[in-house]
Structures are given as C-alpha cells and as structure tokens.
Amino acid sequence: MKKTILILASAALVAAACDGPVSPQDKLTVNDKKIDEIIAQMTLEEKVEMLHSKTNMSSAGVERLGIADMNYADGPFGIREEGVPNGFQSAGWTLDSATYFPTGSALAATWSEELAYKYGTGMGKEARLRGKDVILGPAVNIQRLPVGGRTYEYLSEDPILSAALALEYTKGVQDEGTAVCIKHFAVNNQETNRGSVDAQLDERTLREIYLKPFERAIIEGGAMSVMPAYNKVNGDYCSENEHLLNEILRGEWGFKGFTVSDWGGTHSTMGAMLHGLNVQMTGSNYLGQPVIDSIKAGKLTEEMVDEKVRQILRVRFAIEAVPADVANTVMTSQPESQQIAKQVAEKSIVLLKNEGGILPIKKEVKSIAVIGQNAVLKTQSGGMGAGVKALYEVTPLQGIEKRAAELGISVDYAPGYKTIAFRWGPAPAILDPLEARSNDEPADPFLVAEACEAAVNADLVIFFGGTNKSIETEGSDRKNIDLPCGQNELVKALKAVNPNLITVLISGGPTDLRKLEPVSPAIVQGWWNGTEGGTALAEVLFGDIAPSGKLPFTFPKKLEDSPAYAMGNFPDPNGAGGDLFSLMFRPDVLKMTPAERQKFLDSLPKPVSKYTERFYVGYRWFDTKNIEPMYAFGHGLSYVDFDYDDMKATAGKDAVKVTFQLENEGNMPADEVVQLYVSRPESKVEWPAKELKAFQRVSLNAGETKTVTLEIPMKDLRYWNEATNAWDLEHGKLLLQLGSASDDIRETAEVTI
Ligand code: BGC
Known about the structure:
CATH class of the largest domain: Alpha Beta
Bound molecules: beta-D-glucopyranose
Strand content: 15-25%
Low-confidence stretches: 1-18
Number of domains: 3
Number of helices: 23
Shape: globular
C-alpha cells in the first residue's frame, strides 16, 4: 500500500513539474526519490557491481537491499534457450522451449502495427515466464545492404515503416511488464568488421534514416533500455559515443533508462563512463575495478557512478522481478503466442509474381512435387544471438502435406540440392550426402535427376529455394545475393520437365532472381516464418487466405544496382579486412598488458564504411536514379484486385490528411496495405524522388468498399537542416502518391504546406 502511495505521489510531482501529460520516458523517474535513498545506502563497490555483467545474461542487483539482478534474454524472435552462466552453451533445461516468432523482415512484411504490438506482447509474456526482465530486442537497424548478415533480423530499408513497427513492438513488450533493449544503436548496417568499422555519415542521413526507428520507440514508446552497437559512428565507438548517447539519446530524446553494451562492445573505462554507457556486457575489465581505481585517482567521481546506478534502478523499479520460485515453472512457449506467430506469418507472405493466376493451387491439382531442402530445413536455430529453441516448428513441407491430405492431394518430396544444415561446432569429416560443404557447390546431377523424376508426373511443382542460416547470419555478410548450391540450374531443369511450377523463397533477405524469374511463373517470398510458418504458407498456397505481405525492402536485379555498391562504398574499397574486434579476443592479444594491447590495436588498419549514398537508401535510390529493381519496395500481389478511388487530400496545421475509397473487387476476403508516398516537385532542398510517409493494412470482405484515412504528421515532413543543425519544415507543394507499392501508384493529389 505504502509503495503505491509513494509511486502515485511522485507521478503527480513529475506531472506537475512538466507542462502537460507525462512523457513515457519521464514516467521512469517516478521512483527517483526512493532510488536516491537506496543509492545513499549503497557502498561504492555495490554500485560498481551493477555496471557490468554478473553472468553472461545478467547484471547484478544488491541482495542486501532487496534489489534483484537484471536478467536479459535474446532475442528479437523468441526467448532464447537458457545458457550456462558464463556462456551461450545450452544449460540443458527442459522447460525453456519458446515460441519462434517470424524473423524481423517477415514481421515488417506484414506492415501491420497491430501485429507488431501483439508480437511484442507474446515476447513480453514469454520473457516473464522465464523470469527475464529485459528482452534484447527489437533489432531495428535500417537494411542498407542487400547482403547484410542481419537483414533478416532487421525490419526494413525504410525508416517510417521500421519506426512504426519498432514502436508497437516496444509498447507490446513493455505493456507485459518486460523492458525492451532496443538494438543496435546505431548505424549497425554491416557485419563485415562489425566490431571495429567506422560508419561515416552526414548528420541529415543519420537523423532522417538511421535514427528514426530508435527515436520513435524511445520517445513515444518509452523504450527502457538501449544497446549501443559494436561499430563506431563518425569516429567513436557507439558504446562511448557522446553525440549518440549523451547529446541525442539522453539530451534531445529525454531517455531516462539505461544502456547495455553489445556483448564485448565496451572499449574503455573513461569513454564508457563519460559518454553514456551504463552496463558493460560482458566482463568487468572496463566498468569494474578500474572505475573504483579511477575514482580514487580523481579521474571520475562517485556522483557519476550514482547517476548510472539511478538510471539502471529506474528500470529495475519499473519492471517487477519475477520471484525465483515462480519463474520457469511452465513451458516458455504458450498457445496464445503460437497463435500470434501464426497470424504474423499469415500476413507476411509476399506473392511476388503470379503469371496466369497459377496460384492459388487449383482444384484440378491432384498431385504435387515439393522440391528443395528449404522445404524441410528448420530455421529456428542458427544466426547466433537470434536463434530460438522452438517448442515446435511446422516446416513448409509439413504444412503442405497436412493441407494436401485434407484435400485428397498426394505430395511427393525430393531434396533437389545439397544445403548446409545449421549445427553448433565444426562440421564432421564425413558429411551427410545431402549436406554441402559450401554454399557455392554446383548442382548435384543425381539430386537434380531425382527431383525431375518427382516433378515430371506431378500436376504441380513447388520449388523451395532461397538461403539458409549459414549464409544469412550475424557475424558475416553474404558475399553476394546468389541462390546457393546450384538452385538456378535445378529450377531450370524442373521447368523443362514440368512448366506448372511455383517457387517459394525461404530467406530473410533479397536474392538475385535474374535466372529464376524467367522460368518460374509464380514466386512467393516465404521468409523465416516462425513456429507456424509452414501452416501459414499452406493456407496461402491453397487459397484459404489471400496473400497480403508487401516487401519491406527492394529486390535489386543485381547487387551492383544497390546504392552502397553503386557508390563504391561496400565492400570496403581499401579492402581492410580482419575484424579488429575478434582480434582483440585472440589468446595472445588477451595476454597483453593494456598498453601493449592498445599499441597493437593502433597498428592495425582501421576499416571505414563511407555512407556517401547519403539518404538514398533502398527504393529512395532506385527511384531517384531510375534504376528498375527486380521487385520494388512495397510490392506484393493478392488473389483479388483492389480499386483505389476518390482520393482527397487536405493540409492542416498538424498533419496532411488523405481519404479515399478502397474496394476489394474479388470474391474472397483480403487485406491490402495502402501506401502513401510524398514527392516535392518544386523544392529547393534536395529530396529523394519519393518517400513513404504513411501506410495502413486494411481488411476487406469480398466486394466490400471502405473509406480509408491516412495521416502524415507535419513533423514527419521535416528534414534535418545541416546549416542550422535542427529539424526544418520546407513549405511548398507536395505531390501525394497513393498506391499498392512504390512502383504501383494508383492516385495522386497535391497539397501545399
Ligand atoms: C549480438 C546481440 C545479442 C548479443 C547477446 C551479440 O553478439 O550482436 O544482438 O543480443 O550478442 O547474445
């Protein structure tokens, strides 16, 4: 009772102190008085214990004062399996199988704020069952490179879409009483040299593109913790970056929570202490004893430590610790979350192409040949931090077999190509005959012949291509976006024996479809779609539901068309290789004294990533430069047609408003994701050809028409003025382009702001 009164009283104080409603960040300060009383009772040693890891996935509280440890859990797509205290190896638990949610790019392909929120609630609830306080996610960096190893973890190449989903995910998690740790702050767009690369970019690009998703989740969503990225931004490591952490995050955005370095991403005591880091994960070589020594030497003050502890305790007080005897008493994965995972998967699948209406699968089809190991490979594990030990995972083949059996259709399966199965540790000397040693292996003639034999007599062939988790993974970028292991040869051979062919791509990022596209009348992007991925895919293929996902990134025709490649910015033209970050953990380097280590590190080449393509990321580049992509940002077909009509636009003081009529002209219920892009025909400021500014997923019954309203808040129309170092609104004409994809604009209108 007392506690409630105290909290209410301090909330009232905060409300009175600020003008207007309390911001989500300010809510974190309601217990500051009580927190200061606690800090006054703590020894310096106890305080410093809170600034670094206690185990691989926790940081310390103060048992003596009843302050619980902070327990963290990867990752963005499911509560990660319990590891041993000092590493990532499995702890061998039995109740820690979680729901595997569709990965980031799949969630983004739903373009659904509602589903992103639900996804967050599912993650938040399962975290609580496991006694976790903080989820290491959402992962919201902009997909700058098609080859990016973490493209599948991240959401979109567009900041407005990424920000909207990051915000809802954050709210969903935190409404369940779990904190998010939004990551990786910031400009973490490549895995190549990720631990040392310096991302060099201008302030406008930083603000308008790369910071947007963080900004919304922090300001509007009240994200309680933030994970600074491994890389440097404009010269300084993110974990000690004054501009990012102190000036922008805390200063401009009013962040009141705490920051946690990426695992191994802390680089110095003074840098971290002075420039915004709260917790070193993992280890204590910077934010442990050296902090105490530096205070004794007069280089730091205890008040600095107090401030960091206060920021951590704000979150500790906002998140109720799960009692040890309550946590881990039931299985992590719960039916409610499994249903959310299914709904997300259902709305994420993108129909890229459907020549001759070959999909949905017709009633006349009585036999199906499913070809390709991606139909049977599970995608829950692998990718490092983002792997999930799923309670179950319905593979595409299982989903198809189940639905086909209900419809009396026979299904034959052939692996078609070798692939790399995910496993921890080195590959054995003798591999399974279906396992490839490398993703570059050519097609296997025996497997191709076997697949053709299965395909030749089937009424329909479903080819499963795409990547795997040894290609798209944290820790390395792809060398290219080619389909691996001779998939192009295989699909050509299949088409020659049976033209009734559908391709389903199982991958997290884009692939080069120049060879596949001409031989595949229908193409579906099926993603790494979680626990119920196979069920959702079968529903779409058999026409139980209409596909409604839209691409959250551009599929370039060829890699060289994409901005960072075209500008010669990636791969690093100086060829600086060898990740400094991993070198720092080499046994001989670890043995060095700090001075020797510094000298050694200073002697190494410093990898740089120049962002001279600026804000021309993804479709902003393709549209402005008139380069035709293979499939454009926002593209995704349905089994029905939608009619857009009667667009009206007005510009008010706070927002631009667009209304229009949207009709489902088909004979089944379907969702459309409507997209509103803005161009500036008479602008003096430089802008991309067009930019997404609003979107909405709309559900319509067969034949139904709805009036849809979209709003662009005026603040989203501003640009970062580098002359004044502030946001600015350029008044003048806006061309509003409404459509079904960035390359499928149906209606336009003009307003003046
Ligand atoms: C990843 C993070 C992850 C952390 C803990 C790091 O390697 O970059 O995203 O949360 O490990 O597993």
